[in-house]
Structure formats: structure tokens, C-alpha cells
Amino acid sequence: MQDLDTPSTAALRQLDTPAAVIDLARMRRNIARMQQQADALGVRLRPHAKTSKCAQVVAAQQAAGAQGITVSTLKEAEQFFAQGLTDILYAVSMAPHRLPAALALCRRGCALQILTDSVEGARAIVDFGRQHGHAFEVLIEVDTDGHRSGITPQDDALLAVGRLLHEGGMRLAGVLTHAGSSYDLNAPEALTALAEQERAGCVHAAKRLRAAGLPCPVVSVGSTPTALAAASLQGVTELRAGVYVFFDLVMRNVGVCSEDDIALSVLTTVIGHQADKGWAIVDAGWMAMSRDRGTGRQAQDFGYGQVCTLDGTPMPGWLLSSANQEHGIVSKPDGDPSDVVARLPIGTRLRILPNHACATGAQFPQYQALAPEGGLTAWGRFHGW
Amino acid sequence: MQDLDTPSTAALRQLDTPAAVIDLARMRRNIARMQQQADALGVRLRPHAKTSKCAQVVAAQQAAGAQGITVSTLKEAEQFFAQGLTDILYAVSMAPHRLPAALALCRRGCALQILTDSVEGARAIVDFGRQHGHAFEVLIEVDTDGHRSGITPQDDALLAVGRLLHEGGMRLAGVLTHAGSSYDLNAPEALTALAEQERAGCVHAAKRLRAAGLPCPVVSVGSTPTALAAASLQGVTELRAGVYVFFDLVMRNVGVCSEDDIALSVLTTVIGHQADKGWAIVDAGWMAMSRDRGTGRQAQDFGYGQVCTLDGTPMPGWLLSSANQEHGIVSKPDGDPSDVVARLPIGTRLRILPNHACATGAQFPQYQALAPEGGLTAWGRFHGW
């Protein structure tokens, strides 16, 4: 077996398991694809750093042409700002108690944009900003698909929030939407239709603000599926997407990537068997994979992940079918796994493609970045808030 | 609202959110309960540290009478050994590539016990141990409920593994089993029956080894539900259990605790609403709660968690019904939530009881330990491997 090693598989044998491996060739291809899409549609790309929470991954996105980043926590903002990024959009509604931390970031030179979707939230920003003599740059969240937060484009509250921010002395930066319901689709035409709904709703909101005499320079839309499915982004200024950098099995089922595009996998070791049941027991349980079972409600259920050989080749029908904290069960639910002990002896190394790259990555303090020529580098990632 | 604060709620208002809060009074009560159960049944208690991965929590368990700990990774073993614990059972089948790290721990003075459940695994231990002149202390994993790993008590492989280890110069420490299928039950009589099955199977395995002239000083059983339901542990020497230290909604549904026993909660802040839908949006998403939906297949489904007021009082019918990465949706699925904006205005702090304490705790770099008199202390926990 060792005789057949490539430089990559030889390198992976040296790691302890479980480990989160990034296939750099795939990651770079994914980054280039989304950048080309944004370029072709004539908009800036502002990647969502919540997927990787990793300086090197974000640096690769910026090097490919991205402008600024999106973050989901102020800790991400602080960490990336410390690494030299200044153009940061915090795309979760601003909690009043976090305004002092946001102000501190701004005063240190961060061009931080914050978000609100209510009169109540806007008033807290205005009151705090005035009290401290700071004009926060604020986006209004627009709800274009009903899946979570935001003000619908036709709602009177949109103008009320816009006026409150503008007249209260804040810098009304524009509107933002995220059609997260795209994760529930799997047909190209449905994705393209949702992308158009996302675009049209957000542009409509921007027009209403402008018609009311309010500034609205930024029109920000996106989710990985709608970003890749959009036929036009007329009126939009920037695109946001996160998970595309790694992709995962959920995105494969949505139909925006193939298994061969998935850049994140969990390296694991076979530690035992239940031969009668056709099981190999591995050391990647849910602590490594996360508890995400996103493919469980999709057309093809991959359990806790698709099993691949050490070189990354999928083993058709072999799934991480069950998981405890530090144990995973590898089996072939629809096949004959009677050769499991001979095929996957103790010590065998496998790689598991995850349901959801954002959730799986978060289980690890670091990634192992695997270069095409086989070099491995540890890349740290943030944890917590 | 602030006028009505207790010292505890006042302290919790000072934390950033989300935060993982330990109610120390409940934790100590849970620890005392399990210790009393072990004492009453005449066995040692060896708590599983994988639930907390926290030095202070484990110290509280030892102070209450526990003897040694169980761990699920060698990193846990290394961390707890560094903190002065020496009696450590690594209760996951030994992967051959981890033997050098295990040996290093032993040579530094750790009384590390390791586990195997196959001839193949035992041979790797024997070969490595002999090569390095070290007699590893090894337990054989016994399968008493078919849920995962282990050799069934009547299997010939049990004696083969025992002989291989003993004759190979290792210290055969005994047998271990974990009836993890107890998580699927919810009737006291079924739990007691499974506890007896777990006990009887493991004791039978021990007797077979002894009858074959092999040593078997340790007979180790347990899971939180079977530990609490056991009527007798005759022939058993030690009990293992993990999640009891915090308990959670899954354990509440299994029937071994009440909501009032759950010592871990996630502190969160309301950041917005969708009034028409009766939703409050909070800053605890799945990154804080984990993706664990363990109650989804139980009699009472709590979504991503039971919502409580800041003082920890459950709000009947209010659930964290949906979760994205950093957004949670609080709603009352079976009630009239039309007053959600008035009842839970932006900035409101809530506490969410988790489905699975082991999974939720792992999302946080630290716990906030809340003393009965309201004092808060940050307790670190390990992450990764």
C-alpha cells in the first residue's frame, strides 16, 4: 500500500486523525469560479468568511479579486481586522450591547458596516452613535424569500428605518438580502428564479429608498446557490457567498457543484469492525463531522458523509452512516459489505466528504492545507465568539 | 427589568452572547446524585470527561468521590494528565498509529488504560509494546447491546484477544462495555432491563476470561441512563457515565432527569423579529447550539432547544425552532405568539436548554460557571484533537 503512495497520500499518512483537509487545487478552482461569476455579472464579490474563519483562505479569495469580506460575528471582524483587512461587513442584525465593540473597531480604522432590520434596532444605533459622536455605516436587511430576517421590500418600515438612520446622522450605506431558502432547492430553473427574486426584491428596496431621497449606494445580495445561478444582477453592486470556497454534499444536492469540487474532507482511521454487520468503525464521529445532517432532507442522503479513499476518490455507496462522539460507522447501506474487514483493515485511512463545510470546519482548531504536489501546511481557524 | 435582577441575572447581563452557562448548583447536585448511585451499588465511579473537557468540572467530580476519569481522545488524556490526573481510561479502540503517543504518556507517569476489541488491534498493541519494552494496561471492549463496537460476551474472539494480550506480555486489565442504545429508550423498566443486560453481559465476559485462566480485575460498565437505572451491579467494579454532569433535553426525554436538572444553557440575545410569523430572532444559531437534533426522534421534540427566561425558568411552548449559523428563530409553534415583539423586545436575554450537552459545550472555547450567589467564572475547555 505504501508503495503506491503519491506525495499527497504519503503526507496524509503522517497526520494524526481526525483532521480537516483542504484540497488546495479544488479550493482555488472554486474561488476562481465564483470570482469569474461576479466579474461576468459586473459586481464586486464580498466572500463570507464564516465558512472558513481562516486567514489563508480569505487571503486566497482576496488575491483572486474579492473586495472586502462578510462576517457573522464581531470576533471574526476583529480577527480579520488584526490581519490587515479593513473592509468588513458584519451581516447579522446589530445587537445594542455590541455597539461599543463595533465602535472600538471603527475607531481603530476598520471600515465596518453593520446591519439592522427594525426601527427599534436602528434607534439603538442612532442613539449610541450620536452619544459617541460616530456615524455608523449601516445597511438595511431586506427579506426577499421569507426564510429569516429582514424587512420586505414593499414594507413601510423600510423607509422608516432608512429615514431614522439618515436623519439620525448615520451613514445609510444601502440594502442587503440573503436568499437562504436557496438551500432547499435542487433544480437549475428554480435557483435562477430565486436569484432573480432576490435581485429584484433588493433592487426594488433600493429604488424605494432613493425615491424617498435617501442614499443607497450598496445593493448587496447572495447565497452560494443564487450567486451561481443568477442570470443577471442588474442594479446590484455586490455579491456575497460563503460555502462555495469548499462546497459540500448539501451544495452537491442543490446542484451547484459535483463531488469532485468538494475541497474539505475529514481524514480518518479505521479502528475496528463489526464484520457481521458490514461495519468499519472509524475515529471520525460527530465531533469531527459535526451533527449536521443537511442531506437527510435532500434527494440523496449521505448520512454523515461520503467515504473516499485516501487519495480522495469517492467509494460509491460507502457512507459514514452513523456517528457517536468519537466513533463513526462506515458501511455500504445498499450493497454487500461482507468484505469490509479485508477491504478496510484496521489502520486504513479514509477521507469523508461532509454534509456542510461550515459546520464541519468549525469542529477543528486548524485545517491541513494539501497542495497539489503533496505539501501539507497547518492553517489555524477561529473558534467561539 | 433591571430593577428585578437577582445577582445571577445581573451577572449574566454583563456577558457577551452567545455564552455557555453552567448552573453550578445543578451541576453539583447532578454530580452528587451519580456518586451516590455508584456508592449505593458498591462500585467506583469513573466519569467520562468528554462531556465537559473542562478541568474544573472534572475536579468537582473527583472531589465528590470519583476515581479516575474516562476520555475519548488522547488529547483529553494529555490535558488532564498535565493537570495532575493520572488514572485515565482511553475508552476508544486503540488505533495503531496512536501507540507512540500512548507510550509517551505512560512513560511520563500516566496510568493510562487502553482499549481493543479485535485480534488485529491486540496484535498491534502487543507488537508495539514488546518492541518498546512496555506492558500496556489493556481492557477488552465487550458489546452488550449491538449498538457499536466490541466483542459479544460469548464470542470466541474474546478469549483469543485475552490470550494474545496476556501471553504477549501486556497487562490484561479487564472488560468494558457501554450500552449506548439506552439513549433510544424512555421507560424506566426498559432502562433497568438494559442496565441488567449490560451488567450481565460484561460480567459473563469477565467470567469467561477468568475461567480460561486470564486476569480480569476490572469490569467496567455504563452510560448515564443505565447507570441511573441499574438495580444491581453485582460483579461490576466500576461505572462510567458522562452527560449526567450537565444533563440535557435528550436525557430529559429518556426519563433520567427533569428540565430543572439541566445545568448547561446557552445565553442569547434577541436581535430582531418577524412579528407576523411570531418569531424572535436570537444570536444563538447552530454554531452555538450545535446541529444536534437528538430530541427530533424522541417523544417530545424540542427543536434546537427549550427557551428559558434569563433566570433559567422554562417558557412553556417556546422553542428555538430553527437555526442558521449565527441566527436562531425563537417561536411558540403550538401557541399564539402574536405578542412576541412586546414580550421579547430587542436586547432581551434568554437561556436555551440544549438537546445534547456534549455537542453544545464543544461549540464554546469556555464555559461561564454561575455560582448560586451570582458569581461568574470563565472555565476553559479543550477543542480538537
Automatic annotation (TrEMBL), chains A, B:
Q: Which keywords annotate this record?
A: Lyase
Annotated source species: Aquincola tertiaricarbonis
Give the family this protein belongs to, as stated in its UniProt record.
Answer: Belongs to the DSD1 family.
The answer, when asked if Lyase is one of the entry's keywords, is yes
What InterPro entries does the annotation carry?
Answer: Ala_racemase_N (IPR001608), D-amino_acid_metab_enzyme (IPR051466), D-ser_dehydrat-like_dom (IPR026956), D-ser_dehydrat-like_sf (IPR042208), PLP-binding_barrel (IPR029066)
- The identity of this protein, by name, is DSD1 family PLP-dependent enzyme
Task: Pinpoint the D-serine dehydratase-like domain residues.
Answer: 263-371
Q: Supply the Pfam families for this chain.
A: Ala_racemase_N, D-ser_dehydrat
